[in-house]
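Example for tutorial group B:
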C-alpha cells in the first residue's frame, strides 16, 4: 500500500473512532462535562492526535452533532421511499412526515436530549451559523420531502392553498421538537404524565386540522 494512502486510512479510522467515542460520551455525560482527554481515552488515542484532527472541542461537538443527525436521518428516510408512501395523497404524506417526531420519542431519546443540549451550547457560546452549515443541511432534507408533499396536497385538493408552507413547517418543527424534548426530559409536576406519546399525537392532529382542505 502506498504510504500516503496508508496515512490517510489511519487518519480516517482515528477520526471515526474519536467521533464514535465522543458521541457516546456526549450522550452519557452532557456537552459541558466531556473533555478532549475523555474522548481520547475512550477512543484509544493520544490527546495530541485529538487536537490534530479536530483542533477544538467546538469542532468535535459540531462533527458529532452532524454524525448523530445522519444516523437518525438514515433510519427515518427509508419510510419515505416505499411504494405505500408514494401512493398517499399530499395530506397523508404530511401527516407521515410529522410522525417523525413520534419516532424520535420512541426510538431516539438520547439523541433528543443531545439536540436540546447542543442548541443551548450553540447559543451560550455564540457559535456562528456558517459553522453549522453541514448540520443545517440535514434539516433541509426533511423539508424537501415536506415541500414536495405540500405541493401534492394543494394539487390534489387535500391541503388548503392559503397556508405559508415554510412558516407552517417551522412551526411544526419547533413545537413538536419542544414537546418531544419535554417528554424525554421527564416529569416534574404532579400533573405531568409522560408515560406515552399522546401529547405528540394531539399536537400532530391539531396541525393537520389546520391545513386540511374543507
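The residue assignment follows.
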Amino acid at each position: 500500500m502506498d504510504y500516503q494512502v496508508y496515512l490517510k486510512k489511519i487518519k480516517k479510522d482515528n477520526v471515526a473512532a474519536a467521533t464514535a467515542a465522543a458521541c457516546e460520551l456526549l450522550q452519557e455525560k452532557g456537552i459541558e462535562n466531556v473533555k478532549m482527554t475523555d474522548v481520547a481515552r475512550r477512543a484509544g488515542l493520544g490527546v495530541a492526535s485529538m487536537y490534530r484532527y479536530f483542533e477544538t472541542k467546538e469542532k468535535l461537538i459540531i462533527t458529532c452533532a452532524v454524525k448523530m443527525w445522519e444516523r437518525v436521518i438514515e433510519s427515518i428516510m427509508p419510510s419515505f421511499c416505499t411504494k405505500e408512501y408514494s401512493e398517499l395523497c399530499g395530506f397523508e404524506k404530511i401527516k407521515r412526515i410529522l410522525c417523525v417526531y413520534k419516532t424520535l420519542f420512541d426510538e431516539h431519546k438520547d439523541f433528543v436530549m443531545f439536540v436540546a443540549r447542543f442548541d443551548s451550547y450553540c447559543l451560550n457560546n455564540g457559535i456562528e451559523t456558517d459553522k453549522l452549515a453541514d448540520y443545517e443541511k440535514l434539516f433541509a432534507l426533511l423539508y424537501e420531502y415536506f415541500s414536495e408533499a405540500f405541493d401534492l396536497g394543494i394539487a390534489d385538493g387535500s391541503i388548503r392553498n392559503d397556508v405559508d408552507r415554510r412558516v407552517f413547517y417551522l412551526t411544526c418543527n419547533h413545537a413538536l421538537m419542544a414537546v418531544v424534548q419535554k417528554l424525554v426530559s421527564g416529569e416534574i409536576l404532579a400533573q405531568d404524565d409522560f408515560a406515552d406519546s399522546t401529547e405528540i399525537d394531539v399536537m400532530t392532529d391539531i396541525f393537520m386540522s389546520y391545513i386540511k382542505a374543507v
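The two ends are 66 Å apart (CA to CA). Compare this with the pattern of hydrophobic and polar residues in the output above.
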